[in-house]
Amino acid sequence: MTSAYVVRFVGGPLDGRVDSVTRPDAAPKPTVTHVHLHAGPKIVHHYDLQYAVEYGCEYRLRVEDEPRP
Length: 69
Known about the structure:
The protein is mainly β. It is built from no helices and five strands. It has one domain. A hairpin with a 7-residue loop joins strand 1 and strand 2. It is globular, with a radius of gyration of 13 Å. The N and C termini lie far apart (37 Å).
């Protein structure tokens, strides 16, 4: 049995989502883009990789008024 690497999302439409992969990428993506398509206009959210004491790393919703890290 292999240990899973946990990826957590905080904020926005993916808030509370937890993905697990068997092996993490050598260099995790600094930003993940989530595109929501529905009957109206396309909605795009950006999640930036941040360090979290409890989990190691997590993706947090970017507040669009803030500059990118």
